[in-house]
Write a structure and sequence with these properties.
8 helices, UDP-N-acetylmuramoyl-L-alanine:D-glutamate ligase, 31% helix, single chain, alpha/beta, four-stranded mixed beta sheet
């Protein structure tokens, strides 16, 4: 069996997503174009993206011993994601009810999160010990010390900087990936390229900022500033696109692509995922990605 290359640590959810023409008003009922249930959570979506792109991935996090938890395990099994590092809690499996509006090209989310992340089990620690990378979201970043992981003493660390990272010290990770808006909060009034360089040179790591449909920009001490354009697709929903990008970026770096090429390919993967309503169903495989890139040279 192929050894696990990337362990994703963080939020695991089961989501219900409805696509509507417009948001309902108070006490109003609207007819949905489509309703789907699927796996979610930044770390979980990244794990699926990694797996579809040919990287053996595992997920570490907490689910409940309930119907939603059992469905989460079924989804991961179908996607080839290793689940032995998942801990079972007495609380319910996390989940969201999401309304995606075609009129506003936006979404509204109501989320149920687990009260407490269960302690990591022995399998989680063993998986991390053998991995090349550990990828963490806003929950996983706070579990690194609990897992005995520090930069330079084990797998490389990738951080999906999703929330409250204005004061985060990026020296703790090897790959820091915020949004361009978050970089603007970290460095008010500073050009994005300069902000990326400041973070990267201070921490001696790689920093990549996502820019939505505009693409992404990155900086490392080895490459300097590099940029990669986005791709135009017919968008059904952008739900999970950022999470997909993070998994795809790590996958392409493991496959040996340069930072700029890895960013370009991750942009394409994230764009293609937007053709589905949920965050996972339309993540392309490597074969599908190559075909898309060949057709859009």
């Amino acid at each position: 069996m192929k050894p696990v290359q990337v362990v994703c640590v963080g939020v695991i959810t089961l989501d219900t997503v409805a696509l509507v023409e417009k948001y309902p008003a108070e006490d109003e009922r609207v007819i949905a174009h489509e309703i789907v249930r699927g796996g979610g959570g930044p770390a979980a979506v990244a794990a699926v993206a990694l797996s579809r792109l040919g990287i053996k991935s595992a997920i570490v996090g907490t689910i409940g011993d309930d119907a939603d938890g059992h469905e989460v395990l079924r989804i991961f099994k179908n996607e080839g994601v290793e689940t032995s590092g998942i801990s079972i809690s007495s609380t319910s499996t996390a989940g969201s009810v999401i309304i995606a509006s075609k009129e506003h090209s936006s979404r509204a989310i109501s989320t149920r999160q687990p009260i407490v992340q269960a302690a990591p089990n022995e399998f989680a620690r063993a998986l991390i010990a053998q991995a090349q990378w550990i990828h963490v979201d806003h929950v996983g970043i706070n579990r690194l010390s609990e897992l005995g992981v520090t930069r330079g003493s084990g797998p490389q660390i990738s951080f999906d900087a999703g929330y409250d990272v204005e004061k985060f010290d990026s020296i703790a990770v090897d790959l820091f990936v915020p949004t361009d808006r978050q970089m603007a909060l970290r460095y008010p009034g500073v050009d994005l390229g300069v902000a990326l360089e400041n973070d990267s040179m201070k921490a001696g790591n790689t920093v990549v900022a996502t820019q939505g449909s505009a693409g992404s920009a990155g900086f490392s001490p080895e490459t300097g500033l590099v940029t990669a354009p986005g791709f135009k697709v017919e968008v059904i929903s952008t739900l999970g696109a950022g999470d997909v990008f993070h998994g795809a970026l790590v996958a392409q770096l493991i496959h040996g692509f340069s930072l700029q090429e890895a960013m370009l390919r991750a942009n394409a993967v994230a764009a293609l995922s937007c053709s589905g309503l949920d965050g996972q169903s339309m993540i392309p495989t490597t074969i599908e990605l190559e075909a898309y890139l060949e057709a859009h040279k």
